Amino acid sequence: MSLPANFLWGGATAANQCEGAYQEGGRGLSTVDVIPFGPDRLPVMRGQMKMLDCDAGHSYPAHEAIDMYHHYKEDIKLFAEMGFKCYRLSIAWTRILPNGDDDTPNEAGLAFYDSLFDECHKYGIEPLVTICHFDTPIALIKKYGGWKDRRMIDAYLKYCTAIFSRYKDKVKYWLTFNEINMLLHLPFMGAGILFEEGEDPTEVKYRAAHYEIVASAKAVRLAHEMMPGAMVGCMLAAGQYYPRTCSPDDVRAAQEADRDNYFFIDAQARGAYPVWAKKRMERAGITLDCTPEDEADMMAGTVDFISFSYYSSRCVTTDKELLAKDGATGNAAFGGVKNPYLKASDWGWAIDPEGLRTTMNSLYDRYQKPLFIVENGLGANDTVEPDGSVHDSYRVEYMRAHIKELIKAVDEDGLPVMGYTMWGPIDLVSASTGEMKKRYGFIYVDKNNDGTGTLARSRKDSFYWYKQVIATNGADLGE
Ligand code: BGP
């Protein structure tokens, strides 16, 4: 067993999925606040249905979430009890700059995260901060149309300047954008994009992607200038694409599907777009608005490490009949078909622990930069027993199998891996469905889909299991 002694075990959350208190402390409105629960959620996340404010006909899970804004001391104490070395969280952009580009940051917002980071350090927990996790300020969507507009780069850098100068002594590890490739699938959630009549959606998305990539590169450079020793990573919604069969057409389709993701990470890790991307854009008639200055910025701002989320592998086919009949229900954002060799979660997401190792090797072969698994976990229905306990052996089984593959990737393949922050150590709002009952946590939160519940926290069986995993640095996986 060769996980390094300083391996960063922990958990990951996002502001909008746990903080709540969406109007407290001078916070401004952001995309995630107006993404409703129910059937309109997907069209809004995709930018097909316009919603820039809340209305009485919808409910909005992010408004209260699990109210971590008022419970963070209790929650971080529970993370510490499990032995966390690292806590990945995101800062809500509009707590710091309520309009997204204010000249003076909001002191109440800054003070909140100051206190949260102090709480982490009290227990020796290293914060890992996502600068932007699916939250584009609504004011900037009204002003610029979100990431469609180049001026977003300056707004983002203003925000980065505010948080880097305030937290430079408290935060060493940073991620520029959560799941940057999600912009292609859920453009409103990923980049505040709404499509107007006559626009080519593909062109709009790739132009926005370019601005985020340039913003990310400039943020990396700024972080290095302002915080010597800081490490900044990119963040990919990862999961290797498998061809459904060994037909050459399927194999090519899987390669092209992987390239949708590599497009982003090649730019962030190597500092330039891959050759095939230029050809793809030409074929699609897309112009990127990439200036020589952008190219120089991208090259000067490559990331220090590659972080990613991994829930499952993906499977593609070129067989139209099969696609119509066997479309994957889970990970709907990524499309594809069901993999007949894999079981799926309650929400239809394929379960493929070995795919984690495959994905890690593909990423390392390509970039040769340290890897960091910043999301992995099982969203499941939990049953609370009359005595309050939750026997979530399915969650333990999922995580054990994935951690085993992570250990093989280190032990047998020799990959450098900085840490593992599983997704949702405490139950929180699901990003894709807005549900509470899709639970990932080791800590149960008494809150239901309809918003009822006491918000009380309690330990599930998996809580004690993970504690043991961390205490033994992965040597005891409880078998
Ligand atoms: C990723 C997001 C997270 C998180 C996770 C689980 O895409 O970065 O924010 O929510 O997926 O997905 P879900 O909440 O839809 O189950």
| Poorly predicted spans | none
Radius of gyration: 21 Å
Largest sheet: 8 strands, parallel, barrel
Average of the residue pLDDT scores: 96
Give the helix/strand class: alpha/beta
Query: Which strand order spans the largest sheet, edge to edge or round the barrel?
Result: 1-2-3-4-5-7-9-10
Overall form? globular
- Estimate the helix proportion, in percent: 25-40%
How many distinct helices?
Answer: 16
* Hetero ligands: 6-O-phosphono-beta-D-galactopyranose
Beta strands, count = 12
Portion in beta strands: 5-15%
> How would you describe the oligomerization state of the chains in this entry?
single chain
Query: What is the CA–CA distance across the termini?
Result: 16 Å
Order of helices and strands: EHHHEHHEHHEHHEEHHHEEHHEHEEEH
